[in-house]
Structures are given as structure tokens and as C-alpha cells.
Design goal:
This protein is mostly helical and about 70 residues long. Helices cover about 55% and strands about 10% of the residues. It has three helices and two strands; from the N terminus they run E-E-H-H-H. A two-stranded antiparallel ribbon has the order 1-2. Strand 1 and strand 2 form a beta hairpin. Helix 1 packs antiparallel against helix 2. The radius of gyration is 12 Å and the shape is globular. The N and C termini lie far apart (about 30 Å).
């Protein structure tokens, strides 16, 4: 579960999303996270990439994370 302290909204994550969040806040890069999740979960690389994109889009739209652009 995530709590947005600015809005007090609570967000529930599935096991893959929760593990993604754990690895993200630990400072791992997206590519490292994907590699670890592929090792831990029975999921195809394509399906995992779709889930990561959807999760990140949701987290960004709720202002729980920001994505830095390279450069």
C-alpha cells in the first residue's frame, strides 16, 4: 500500500507492483528492476514491460513519482 501524504489517498499494489515499488525506492534503475522482476515472477518480458509502463503512468498521474528525462 502507498499513501500520498499530500492527499491522504491510499493506493493498493498487486505483488508485482509492490515489488517494483520496493526496488524503485531502494534506488534501482528501471532496467535492473525489470531484470529482477523477470527472475522473481512467472511473466514474459513483454507482459512485464506493459505492466511497468501502466504502473509508472498511474504513479506519475497521481503524483507519487516523477520521471527524470535523460540529458
Amino acid at each position: 500500500m502507498l499513501v500520498h501524504l499530500g492527499t491522504n489517498r491510499i493506493y493498493s499494489l498487486n505483488p508485482t507492483g509492490a515489488r517494483f515499488w520496493e526496488l524503485l525506492v531502494a534506488g534501482h534503475a528501471r532496467s535492473e528492476i525489470a531484470k529482477q522482476l523477470l527472475h522473481e515472477f512467472d511473466v514474459s518480458a513483454e507482459q512485464l514491460e506493459e505492466e511497468i509502463e501502466a504502473l509508472l503512468a498511474s504513479l506519475v498521474s497521481e503524483r507519487l513519482v516523477t520521471i527524470e528525462q535523460p540529458g
